[in-house]
Fold this sequence. Notes:
Distance between the termini: 79 Å
Helix content: 40-55%
Mean pLDDT: 84
Structural class: alpha/beta
Strand order of the largest sheet: 8-9-7-10-11-6-12
Number of domains: 4
Radius of gyration: 33 Å
Number of helices: 24
CATH topology of the largest domain: Rossmann fold
CATH superfamily of the largest domain: Tandem AAA-ATPase domain
Shape: globular
Strand content: 5-15%
Amino acid sequence: MNTTYQPGKLVSLRGRDWIVLPSVDPDLLVVKPLGGSDDEIAGIYLPLNIPADKPQETVFLPPGKDDLGDISTARLLYDSARLAFRNGAGPFRCLAKLSFRPRSYQMVPLIMALRQDSVRLLVADDVGVGKTIEALLIAKELLERRKIQRFAVICLPHLCEQWQNEIRDKLDIEAVIIRSNTQARLDRQIQGDTSVYDYYPFQVISIDFIKSDNRRDVFVEQCPELVIIDEAHTCTRPAGASASQQQRYHLISRLAKKAHQQMILLTATPHSGKPEEFHSLLGLLQPEFETLDLPNSSQNQRRDLARHFIQRKRGDVEKWMGEDTPFPNRDAFEADYSLSLGYRNLFEEMLDFAKQLISVDPGKAGQRKIQYWTALALLRGVMSSPAAGVEMLNTRLSNLATSFDRVLVAPRVSKYVSFIFVPRRQVFHDKLVIISQESYATFAVLQSNIHNYWACRYSSTLGSSTINYAPSDCFETYPFPEELLQKDNPILQAIGERYHEHRRALMLRLWLGLTDIYNLFHNRDLTPAIAAKVSGKPEEAEVGYQGILELRKLHRELDEAVLAAYGWTDLNLGHDFHEVETLPENDRVRYTISPEARKELLKRLLALNHQRAAEEKAKLPAKAEKAGKGKGAKGKKAAADEPGLFG
């Protein structure tokens, strides 16, 4: 930066007085009109040497007798000048742009951060002292000093909305939440191939979303200059065998290894009683701190650590530099109360519902912890008040109804079973099948030949070659890979996205619908000329031809990935052009799996269907079991040597 014009200096040019702001380019002078707004900030490229843009030192003439006025106008001038200069003339540039007044003790972490070239700070203040405010103060000050342009908050999933609201309310900054149910929507708002981590300047990210291997590397490479890690004690290197915590530690440690990465770690419990975990947390600040023997460390070593670590209890800050901070006193006691008849009935129904929630299958033991926490939260809500319990249920129902930005759509009657993602917020025709799923993994299964032949086997037809896809026959009875609808398979997710996006791009390039695309897909004699004729775009002949070949390749990979999800890797699918005996003689050749593979797949899927049905039947009460007795397959009648659906 040009040493003549340091930030905060007052200069005169273009007939106005300006204040110099920080600039990342030494040849670019960034100035803001004195008393002006951020919208009036200007940049002057000094090497041009334009006479009118040559800054001069601002000179204020001394007041004279003609400037005398009354005390009220003098006070008004004094107050306005003080407020106008507060942003540029004070030691902290952010104070005039906050919606709150920080307490004196909350300025200490900010001062510590400003003394560091790259911020590495562990703030371990007690609950209620204000770690969130202290972190946001640092972020805002670094933004105002132009030391950073972006920042991200990494927190636990249930805290994302709370952080987003705090950033909006305290800093007047709109941050985006990045997690599994928002990334797809955020991606669609970006033009080009820029990632969400590089595109959005202010981010609140779920740590359980970003810790996965396939997302971690991209984020570490493209993350903002400042990262705030909330509940940092959950990111230590675990002494036990917690795989989840290991992934979190790998993420944060990778960030810490970046040379100029600025990080603020927040936690009220830095030491859990396990020294190795605490030292791994200190190692995120500076590598040498991880091996620091605190009881036997020297004064200089403790002083070095104190530059990066601050921890205060409420009693330490209740009276700080003459400022009192009264914290609420909590008195714990128990009081008995009687439930009304309606309240008691509601509570008993909630209790029965909670018992069902925690009655998970032995094969789904991994869900037990989640189900217990869900049931506990629900019971706490209804014990607080009936209205709270009902509101929790209504909120859950509302979230289920609106949690998807897109849905899977397929024509009810079509030559081919083909699904595509479309935006949710529209009115759909009744001749469409709507699946409330936005996962590419689910798309991969539904678009695979494995599901296709289940649908063909148990669907009715309109004519000899048209499938009538009924969800009750094809979707609800289809045995998906274990837990797929609750937890995405990353391999299926990846191949599903590649397949869907390649097909979408090909449709747009050739300006063809799904039926025409799959007519080309199943054409044994496909050539560039045929692709050009069908699309009506001769200039796209080779592109269309190669695009269809690539789609076939992706379909093979998709089928193999779905097969692996079932654990049936012993089965050879034999992809090629095969005749499908159920289709008309003049149109029965398809690029698909072999007849032997189709027969074996249907056999295994049906066996899995029977197994799932028996497990569900075993969990039903006797009355429900009797009521459900006799339910059989719909659509085509099962073959004589094949049991029907559900036994």
